[in-house]
Amino acid sequence: NNKILEARLRETRSEIATLRETLEAVRVEALTDPLTGIANRKHFEEMLVKAIDQASVERSPMALVVLDIDHFKRFNDNFGHLTGDQVLRLVGMTMREQVKSKATIARFGGEEFGVILPDTALDTARVTADAIRTSVMSRELVKRSTGESLGKVTVSIGIAAFRRGDTAVSLLERADQCMFAAKRSGRNRVVTDADPEASADWYDVA
């Protein structure tokens, strides 16, 4: 009887472990962008609220980076959506390589990405953002089927530093404003909410 009970107990433990693994896999899948393998919009929004709460309570620095691929529509129109997907994967992979530890990296729009940097001052966030920008620019995109060079990919990046009273909406809006300022200023650059360009009137730039 004891042996039977022990065997059943082992089976039960194994089933519980398998169930836990399955649940964790489902949870991760629900929070992951399937194309790039980084966080999706849902996870990004959850982590942004948590990071703002932490910065408020601990009075610690925090920065939000918003990144948009320059002339992305041109890649899709000229080379097709499979190449557009390749561009998105390239940017996601580069972000994973350049961003470390506690940061959350996400794709939260079509060609728009975000990086949440807790415990990070604006100057440090700028260094990280510029590392992403230069790394993306250094990669040459090649069409897999033919080996044909499709040229360089560049990104425009905006950074907003957390201020007392910020909400997820206000911080994201300010980072967006900086990203559009980067596009207006010639693309392939980083603009922070401490830069003079960020205070100009902003509008959508493709």
Write a short abstract of this structure.
This protein has 206 residues and is α+β, with helices and mostly antiparallel strands.
Describe this structure as you would to a colleague.
The strands form two sheets. The protein has a five-stranded mixed sheet, with helices on both faces. A two-stranded antiparallel sheet has the order 4-5. It is 52% helix and 17% strand. It is flat and about 80 Å long. β6, α6 (168-184) and β7 (190-192) form a beta-alpha-beta unit. The model is unreliable at 202-206 (pLDDT under 50). It is α+β, with helices and mostly antiparallel strands and 206 residues long. It starts with a helix and ends in a 14-residue tail after the last strand.
> In sequence order, what are the helices and strands, one letter per element?
HHEHHEEHEEEHE
Tell me, rounded to a whole number, the average pLDDT.
89
Query: How many DSSP H or I helices?
Result: 6
Distance between the termini: 72 Å
* Overall spatial form: flat
Identify low-pLDDT runs.
Answer: 202-206
User: Per DSSP, what share of the residues sits in E-state strands of 2 or more residues?
Assistant: 15-25%
Helical amount: 40-55%
Q: What characterizes the major β-sheet?
A: 5 strands, mixed
By helix and strand content, what is the structural category?
alpha+beta
Number of strands: 7
Radius of gyration over C-alpha positions, nearest whole angstrom: 21 Å
Strand order of the largest sheet: 2-3-1-6-7
